[in-house]
Design brief:
The chain is an all-alpha fold. It contains nine helices and no strands. Helix 1 packs across helix 6.
Length: about 210
């Protein structure tokens, strides 16, 4: 029987693994205690490392918050982009979006608490706002592109600049998720998708009326 050979991680791989564990630990603590309620020592301990390991990867808590914001932005954009990859129809995209929102609903409190903590941190630290603004811009841009593509499939012209429509949908999503979290009675897991589908129906019907 051949012996199992375990490949040792390279220094870069080990560092990336440590960094990821620190980010995951920080997110857990930020949700539990808030950004200002979690110390560097607590983050390092939760991740299973020393204080020195923390400072070997981040200049401080502020640097970690920025890295966490970038990490969340990249992951969410990847998830949104994947919704339309290889889809045969817009109906298939909507079904994927429904599945995505059902998964998010299972962890909605964690997701929204982290989003709120990052927003509060940016409000208290103005130098962070450009990075948070970039995250919001990329989210709105992804929505705008999706809306434009959906309207095009229906042969409909946008009712307004797609960037503005993306802003509307993004703001509506935030409001609906707050309602889903705080007052869930009558607000289903798929309320965001239902609202999006209703808006698209309205926009495509409007174009049809204008051209009829």
């Amino acid at each position: 029987m051949e012996a199992c050979v375990v490949r040792r991680l390279t220094r870069e791989e080990s560092r990336a693994q440590t960094r990821e564990r620190l980010l995951a630990a920080a997110e857990e603590l930020f949700v539990e205690r808030g950004v200002n309620g979690a110390s560097v020592e607590q983050i390092a301990e939760r991740a299973g490392f020393s204080r020195g390991a923390f400072y070997g990867n981040f200049d401080g808590r502020h640097d970690l918050v920025l890295a966490l914001l970038e990490r969340r932005t990249e992951r969410e954009l990847e998830e949104v982009a994947a919704l339309g990859e290889g889809a045969a129809s817009f109906a298939e995209v909507l079904e994927r979006l429904r599945a995505f929102n059902r998964r998010r609903a299972e962890h909605l409190e964690h997701w929204y608490a982290m989003r709120t903590e990052l927003l509060l941190y940016a409000l208290r630290n103005p130098e962070v706002r450009p990075q948070l603004a970039r995250r919001e811009y990329l989210a709105r841009k992804a929505l705008a592109e999706g809306i434009a593509a959906a309207l095009s499939r229906h042969g409909a012209a946008p009712a307004a600049d797609p960037a503005f429509l993306g802003l509307i949908v993004h703001a509506l999503e935030d409001g609906l998720l707050i309602q889903r979290l705080i007052a869930p009675d009558g607000v289903g897991d798929e309320v965001v998708v239902d609202a999006f589908a209703l808006l698209l129906d309205t926009w495509t019907s409007r174009t049809g009326m204008e051209t009829s």
